[in-house]
Every structure is written in C-alpha cells, then in structure tokens.
Write a structure and sequence with these properties.
Layout: H1 2-18, H2 24-34, H3 38-61, H4 63-67, H5 70-96, H6 100-107, H7 109-118, H8 123-137, H9 145-173, H10 181-203
Helix pairs in contact: 1-9, 2-3, 2-9, 2-10, 3-7, 3-8, 3-9, 5-10
Length: 204
Amino acid sequence: MLPYLSVFLTGLFFSFIGSIPPGTLNVSVLQLGLQKKVNTALRFALAVSIIEYPYAWIAVEFESWLTSSPLIIENFQLITAILMTTLGIYTIWSSRKPSTFSVKFSESGFRRGIVLSLVNPMAIPYWMGATAYFKAQGWVDLSSEGLIHSYVLGTSVGAMALLTLFVFMANRLAKYVQENLFIKMLPGFIMLALGLWAFARYFF
C-alpha cells in the first residue's frame, strides 16, 4: 500500500505545483470564478482533471517512444499551434460579439474544459520530463500497471485541487473586480500567444 500512496502523492504534489504558472486552463477558471460562475468553473476544473489522466498516462507509457520520434513531436507541435491560434482568435472575437453557440459553449463548463484541455496538451511534455526525472532520482517506482495508475490518478487529483482553489480564491475577489471585456478576452489572448509561440518554435 505504501508504494501506491507514495507515487499517488508524488503525482498529486507535482501536478498541483505544475498547474500554478498562468496558462489557458487556470486563467479560464479564474475568469469564471471572477464572474461568480462557481458551478461552471468547477465543472470546467473537473473536465480538465479528467483529461489530465490520459495525457499523463500517455506521457508515462510512451515516454521513450515519443522522445525518440522528433518528427511526431514536431508535427504535434504544429497541429497544437494551429488549434491554439484558431481558438484564441475565436475566443477574442466571440467575447466582443458572442454568438448563440459561443454563449452555450462558455456556459457549459464541462464541455469547454474538455475541448480546451484536448487542444492544449501541455501535460504530455511536462509529465514526460517530470517522470523521467523522478525515475532517475528513484522517487517513483512505476514497475506495475497499478503503480502507474496510482501515479496518474495523483496527477488528476492535483490538477483538480489547484483549479478548485483558484475557483474559490477568484470568487472571493469577484466583488472587487467588475465584469469587463478584458476579463472575457484574456483567455483568448493567452491561447493566441501560446499558439504564436508554438509557431515561432516550430519554424525558427
């Protein structure tokens, strides 16, 4: 039982820490919290934590294969760049003049979280590097399927814990922050910047 708990807590802790830097997903959660859409934000956080599981599992299972296939990583980065840039432009545009679809999409925290998580697979390179380091340091033993799934479950719980904390921190600040266009457009600007950054890294 102790090895399972150890890998679970390792995944949880480093997922919590790794989710702190500003990014599309946690800024979107903060945005929803500032708009006092707590239930929507929690559904969004749940969706993100669910997608974290398969992405972390892919990183663990295919660590050696992915790192030895530069062509796959380069194409994967280009696809991500295109998707993130497109979503960023769409988010900025829909914030200024929301359509019926964009309103429903924004109000559906779970579906929005699923889509943004799927096209923002930052968890894969993060967990590939982190897992390789943990294994090299002897911090985790992932020699069985049970240990791997305990570790990956920890990454999902850690992401959910951090995003939930963001939700309630933002909700407490909501009364001090008036709803404005910038708050609505901020995730779009971040997605656009990440997409352009990915393009720059791919081409230069």
